[in-house]
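job 3f2a | input accepted
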Amino acid sequence: MNNVKTIEDIIEIAKEYLHEENIEFIKKAYAIAEKMHEGQFRKSGERYVHHPIEVAYILTELHSGPSTIAASLVHDVLEDTGMSKEEMIAELGEDVTNIVDGVTKISKLKYHTKDKVLAQNHQKILLAMAKDIRVVLVKLVDRLHNMRTLQFHDNVEKQKRISKETLDLYAPLAHRLGMYRIKAELEDLSLKYLYPENYYEISNRLKEKKSEREDDILLMQNNIEQHLKENNVTGYEIKGRIKNIYSIYKKVVTKNKTLDDIYDFLALRVIVNTVEDCYRVLGIIHGRWTPLPMRFKDYIAVPKTNLYQSLHTTIVGENGKIFEIQIRTYDMDRTAEIGVAAHWAYKENAGYSPEKEQLEITNKLKWYKNLSTYVDVSGDIDPLDNIIEDIFSANVYIFTPNGDVIDLPSGSMPLDFAYRIHTHIGNTTVGAIVNGKIVPLSYKLKTGDVVAIKTNKNVTPTKEWLKHAKTSGARQKINSFINKQKRDELITQGSAEFEKYAKTTTYNPNQLDDEAVKKHFGKNNINTVEDLMYDIGRGYLTPQTILNRLLGITDVKLTDELALKQYGEDNQKVKKRKTTNAYGIIVEGLEKAQLRLGNCCQPVYGDNIYGYITKGSGIVVHREGCPNITKSEDERYIKINWDPEFQGRVFDTTLKISAIDKKNILADFVNSINSTKATIVSVSSTKNKSGECVTKFKLQVANLDDLNHVILSIGKISEVYGIERVYK
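job 3f2a | predicted structure (728 res):
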C-alpha cells in the first residue's frame, strides 16, 4: 500500500511536543510490538505491525500522551500474541497495560442485531470509558484503520457486519466526542460496504460536478474575501468545506430529497480570530447576500454537547447558487475537527497525570460527567434499557429562567429537568412553568423551552413520579428517595416498638449505641442501631429477643428469629420443631411428609421455598420464582419452611457463568470455586464466535450462604459479566 507510515514518522511528530524520555518509552513499546507480531501478516499482505503503527500515527497527530501512543502500538499484543498482562506491566507499566486490557475487552465484544446484545456492548464500552476514556480513543482509531483496509476482507457478509457495527456504535461515539473528522470517515466507509450503490451514486455525482463546484466555490470565496477586506476584517481564512457522503445520503433518504435538492454541496467555512468577528462576518454576508429563512443556527451561543461551536447560515450566492456558510474561530475549528482531543492534547509538565487528563476531559464534556449515573444504577432500574436512549439519542436543549442551557435526551419531561438542576429541586417539585404557561409533569420538553420548576418543601417523590421521568438519572434519584423514606419509616417504627418494650425492663434504651450493637449482633451482620431498628420495623426481630441478648438472658434464641428473616416465615414465635425428613424442611401440620426437591429449580437450604402437592409424588419443593409453579393451582400450595437448626446434607445447584473468553479462564473459575466450601460435581463450557464463554457448573453446597460465597468469588474475575442460577 502507498504512503505506509513508519515508527520514524511517529517519532518525528512526537518530538514536537514530548520530552526525550517519553520518546524512548514509545520506541520501547514499538520494539515490543515488532517482536511480538513477528511473522504475523494482515489480509492486505502487510506485516501486522503496520496496523498499530498507523493507529499510533493518528493518535500522535492528535498530540495524545505517551501512554496512549505506547498502548496503541501494543493494543493487539495481549489478544493476538503470547505476552501476558503481568509481562506487559513489567515492561511498560500498569497505565499502558490497563489501556490495552480495556481495548482488548471491547474488541472481544462482537456486534449482534438483537437490541439486548447491542445494549450490553454499549454498556461495556461506556464502562470502559467511565474508567478511562483513552481506551475508547484508541479503539476508535483502531476501528478507523480497520475500516480503511476493509476491502481486503473477501467475505462480503463480514464486511457488512463490521460496517453495521461501525455505523451503529463507533461513529456515534466519535460524534459524542466531537471528533467530526473520524466520525465522517467512519460513516462514509460504512456506507460504502452497506449500500454500495448509494455510495457510488453520490460519490460519482460529486466527482462529475467537481470542476463546476470548485469554480463556483472559488468565485464565492473571492467575493466574500473582497467584502471582508472592504469592511477591514483581518486575520481570516476562507476554505471550501467537504461534505461527507453519508450526510448527503441521510438527507436523501430521511427527508425524501433528490441530490439536486441538497443545498450544501456548495459549502464554505470562514475562520476568524474572535467570537465578535464571527458575528461581524455573519452581518457582512447577510448584508450582501440573501439568507434562506429557517436555515440559520447559532451553535456559538448554544454549543452542542460535544463542544461543537459555529454559526451556520445558508444564502443565495453568486449566479443564484445555494451556499452553506459556516463561521467560527480558529479554536472552534480545531475542536470541530478533532473534538475533545483538541482539549486533551498532552502537556509536558511535572504535575500532569492520567487522572488530571481525565478530569480535564470530564470538565469539557458535560454529558461525560453523568456517566456514573448510567453505569452505577442499582435497584429496579436496568442500565441496559437506558444507555442507548440516554447517551446516544438526539438531545433537546432547554433554558433555565437565567438563560443557562441544559441538554436532555429527546422525550424528557419537567422532572428530568428538575433533577438535572439539583436533587433537592427534583424531590420537591410540584409543577412546571414552560414558556410562561403551567404544564403537567407529563409534558415532553422541546428545544428552546424556557422551564421554571415550582417546588414545595412538604412534597416528596412517589412511585407515580416514575411515569413522568425518562432519564435514568432522575429515575434513580426518585427510587433512592422512596427506598430511603421507606427505610426511615421502618426505623422509626422499630425504635418506637423497642423503646416501648424496654420500659417493661431494667434496660435504658439511651445506652444502646453502634458499638454495643456490633458487639452483640455483629456476627448476625447487624452493625448499627439503625440496622437493628430497621429489622424490628420490618418484623424480622422482636424487641424481646433483642433485650434478652443485651441483658444476657438466653431463654429465647436470636437464631430462631433470624431464621424467620432469612427463610421467609411470618413474624410469629418459633416453636421448637425438628424435621423428620432428609432435607431439613418443616411442613405445617405434617410430622412425616413425603418430600422431594424440584429438579427444575434445585432449591438449597436457605432459599425462599414453596411446597406443591402432586398427584402420587407427595410434596415437591420449589424455589421462589420457579417458572414451573407460576401457572399451578393455588390450592395445591402448602406452607413449608426450613428447620433453622438443620445440618448435615448438601444440595445440588447449577450456576451459569457468562464471560469474555480468555486463555485459562476455566481454570480461573475452578480455582475460584475451590476457594469456597462448594464441591464441583460437573462442568460444561462453550465458546462462540463473539468471543464469549458460557460455562455451567453443577455444584454441591450446604446452604444459600455458601452458594452466595461462590457467586461473590467468581464475580471478582474481571472477565465475568453474568452469573445466574439455572432453571431447567
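job 3f2a | Residues 374-394, 554-577 have pLDDT under 50 and may be disordered.
job 3f2a | closed
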